[in-house]
Design brief:
Strand content: under 5%
Number of domains: 2
Number of strands: 0
Radius of gyration: 18 Å
Helix content: over 70%
Length: 145
Amino acid sequence: MIFIAGFYWDHFFDNMPLTDLTMFLLAGPVIYHLTHDLFVKDKSTQNKALRIYSFAYVCIYVLWCLIDIVGFAFTMGNISGLMAYMLYLSGVLFLAPVLYILAKDIFLKSKGPRYIFIAYVVLLFMLAFIPERLNEIGFYDTTSN
C-alpha cells in the first residue's frame, strides 16, 4: 500500500489527474490501518469500519489488477512480454496474505477466508499459464526480424 501511495505521490507536484489524487487519498486509511496493525498490540482499539474499508479497498485493487493482468496477456504483442506479465502476477500474489489477514479479522468465526485465500492463489497460478497457451495457438506474433 505504501508503494501504491508512493507511485501516486511521485506525480503529486506534476499535473496530477483527479483519479490519481483520489486513489492516493483513498489509500491513506489503508496504510494507517496496516501500520497500526503492525505496531499496536491491542487489537480491541481498532475500528471495525476501518477494517472493512481496508479489506474492501484491497479487494477492489486486487480485482482491478486481475483484470489488468488478463488484459495485458491479450494485448502484449509478443511473448517477450512474459517476464513483465509474471512479475505483475507475482506482485499480486504477495497481496494474498494481506487479504487473508484482513478477511480473518472481519469474518471471525467463518472458514470462508481460508477457502477464498486458496481459491485466489489457485486462480493466480491458473493465470500464469495464459500466455503460454496463447503462444501455443499462435496468438502472439512469432516472426523475427
